[in-house]
Amino acid sequence: MTSPATPAPRRSVPRLVADLVAAFAVLVFALVFGLASIYYDSQFSGFAMACGTGPYPGLQCNGTVLAIATVGLLIVTVLAFCIGLGMTIVRIIQKRLVFVWPVGALAVMIVAFYFFTWLASQTAPTA
């Protein structure tokens, strides 16, 4: 004989509404931040245009590092947003705490933006 499954505890309506509003607000901000970061990412090609004939020290005017920074920022930004959006939908269906996934996705996008921008800045030629 098995006992019936206990239903999940009901969440209060104000908390549920605040959770959903916060999640969607963070998702919208993450979308805007992601689009702005992708636009900024497209500006990195100007670094390679400023390079003349070499040799250059270190990472300066290194096209491979610049390509890694450009593609890396694009991939991490898109994947973080898609995972954040997908897990938000899953958590809504599961009736669990929702806003954690969009906040995590936004944090990953911000860290990636600063890291890959720093990496791309290492390839910029000095005047």
Written description of the protein model:
There is one protein chain. This protein is mainly alpha-helical and 127 residues long. The protein has one domain (13-49, 58-121). Helices cover 70% and strands 0% of the residues. The protein contains four helices and no strands.
Mean pLDDT: 86
Which ranges are low-confidence, i.e. pLDDT below 50, for 5 or more consecutive residues?
none
Number of helices: 4
Q: Give the total of domains.
A: 1
Question: Per DSSP, what share of the residues sits in E-state strands of 2 or more residues?
Answer: under 5%
The radius of gyration computed from the alpha-carbon positions, rounded to a whole number of angstroms, is 21 Å
C-alpha geometry? elongated
Q: Distance between termini?
A: 80 Å
Helix content: over 70%
Structural class: mainly alpha
Q: Gist?
A:
The chain has 127 residues and is mostly helical. Helix content is 70%, strand content 0%.
Q: Which tags fit this structure?
A:
elongated; single chain; 4 helices; 127 residues; mainly alpha
Secondary structure: elements and pairs:
Blueprint: H1 13-42, H2 45-49, H3 63-94, H4 100-121
Helix pairs in contact: 1-3, 1-4, 3-4
